[in-house]
Design goal:
This protein is α+β, with helices and mostly antiparallel strands. It has seven helices and 23 strands. It has a six-stranded mixed sheet with strand order 1-4-18-6-15-19, with no helix packed on it. InterPro entries: FmdA_AmdA, FormamaseFmdA.
Length: 462
């Protein structure tokens, strides 16, 4: 029995709950529960778009997702006695969906979840230049496994984990985030997908922040899209039940929050909506290591011990990629490009069995693939590898002299064309014509905040 509980009413939106969480990072967002070291918390979490995505065979919802909404975070949880410079120890006791059911509910996590490919103009992803339109796959949960009517021949066990976990930033750290990210946005403010997302007052949910402070804080608060020094949207599939995470503490009480739960995910969450997204619950306990950031030289990012490993696969098919562009241009040790090529290599391979490229991409986003940087020093080529577990397929995918198995007649994947998107639908750092937000970006980019690296000690180039 947990010492504290935080539950959500499935019939109401996230911002209309009795106790409201938040979807931005800011040190002034008040905590919802005080927790003592050693105590446990059971808390529910809404999926990242708060019920916008439906369990149907239409991808129009993926095409038009409201990008100002994510992520719906449960918290902050104030940890009594935690001080800046400490390490917050979070033990994940259990993570799971709201339910597994033969009669799925309305919300993702109530017996089902989803994976999406965002349109390049509306969110994008790891291969956005190759996938301009929106696609969706629905997954059903049963017996701890996921299957999809849109992706035949595939099933795998859950590796439930929170995509987002983190502590609140200090005012100085928040200012640093806003300066460095706004400088990046200002270099190409209308680019899509965006280089970064600056503070977005529209759609900000700030818990119980006083009404008088809402305008100021919504213009300062950082969106939850990227991982940062506090943790944030790390999307690490191995942070399952049994994990122990050590978070840097930047404010009194640490103010820990979590959200963006996934039933399963491949390394990289490569479609951006690449996990099996769901609402669910997390049970966790907390402790403190006083002055742990100094003792363990850990201020730039969390450290973690992986949890229960989940399904144990013994057979893999591995795809390599090199740092060479589609046009044949050599890039020097570009590990990101190398991994993109490994993903494309695997997608092409899966099409020989009858999957479309979009179906293959959806599988690789959701299934427990592993990404490895195999060589990052052998100039000029970086070598990245993608490990695909063969046991998730109900047929043999390994090359053979008899030729590939075929999955049969094509199964339609929900699709929505990006041609229907207007100028106002384009997701960029600053929308065209939004002079107010562009002024905010320029203001933040030129702020007095002192930029700093994430390493604990000084590192000098020779």
């Amino acid at each position: 029995m947990a010492d504290h509980t935080y539950t959500l009413d499935s019939s109401r939106p996230f911002d209309q709950q009795d106790v409201v969480g938040h979807n931005r990072w800011h040190p002034e967002i008040p905590p919802i529960i005080n927790v003592k070291p050693g105590e446990t918390v059971y808390a529910e979490s809404r999926e990242w778009f708060d019920g916008y995505i439906k369990n149907d065979d239409n991808a129009h919802d993926i095409l038009t997702v409201p990008f100002e909404k994510p992520h719906q975070l449960s918290g902050p949880f104030r940890i009594e006695g935690a001080k800046p410079g400490d390490l917050l120890v979070v033990d994940l006791i259990d993570v799971g969906p709201l339910s597994e059911s033969d009669s799925p509910g309305e919300l993702a996590g109530e017996g089902w979840g989803y994976t999406g490919i965002f349109a390049a103009k509306h969110g994008g992803g790891f291969l956005s230049e190759y996938f301009p339109d929106a696609y969706k796959a629905i997954w059903d949960f049963s017996g701890g496994k996921a299957t999809s009517r849109h992706l035949p021949g595939v099933s795998f066990s859950s590796m439930c984990h929170p995509g987002v976990m983190g502590t609140a930033p200090s005012p100085a750290m928040l200012a640093r985030w806003n300066k460095r990210e706004s400088q990046l946005v200002a270099s190409d403010p209308h680019r899509f997908p965006p280089l970064a997302v600056p503070p977005q007052p529209k759609g900000a949910t700030l818990g119980s922040v006083p009404e008088a402070d809402y305008p100021r804080i919504s213009r300062e608060a950082a969106v939850t899209v990227p991982p940062r020094e506090n943790g944030g949207n790390m999307d690490i599939k191995n942070l399952t039940a049994g994990s122990r995470i050590f978070f840097p503490v930047f404010v009194e009480g640490a103010n820990f929050s979590f959200g963006d739960l996934h039933f399963a995910q491949g390394d990289g969450e490569i479609t951006l909506c690449g996990a099996i997204e769901m609402g669910g619950y997390v049970e966790f306990s907390v402790d403190i290591i006083p002055d742990g950031m100094n003792t363990y030289k850990s201020s730039g990012a969390p450290i973690f011990v992986p949890g229960n490993p989940g399904p144990q696969y013994s057979d893999w098919l591995t795809f390599t990629g090199l740092s060479i562009t589609n046009e044949g241009e050599q890039r020097h040790l570009d590990a990101t490009l190398a991994y993109q090529n490994a993903v494309k290599h695997c997608i092409d391979y899966l099409t020989v069995f009858g999957y479309t490229k979009e179906q293959a991409f959806l599988i690789l986003g959701a299934a427990p693939i592993e990404a490895h940087f195999s060589a990052v020093v052998d100039y000029p080529n970086a070598c990245a590898t993608l490990y695909l577990p063969t046991e998730i397929f109900d047929f043999d995918i390994r090359p053979s002299a008899t030729g590939p198995h075929h999955i049969g007649d094509p199964v339609p994947t929900p699709f929505a064309s990006a041609t229907s998107l207007g100028e106002s639908d384009i997701v960029s750092g600053v929308a065209a014509g939004d002079s107010e937000r562009l002024a905010l970006v320029k203001q933040l980019a030129g702020a007095d905040a002192v930029l700093a690296g994430t390493a604990f000690s000084a590192w000098h180039r020779h």
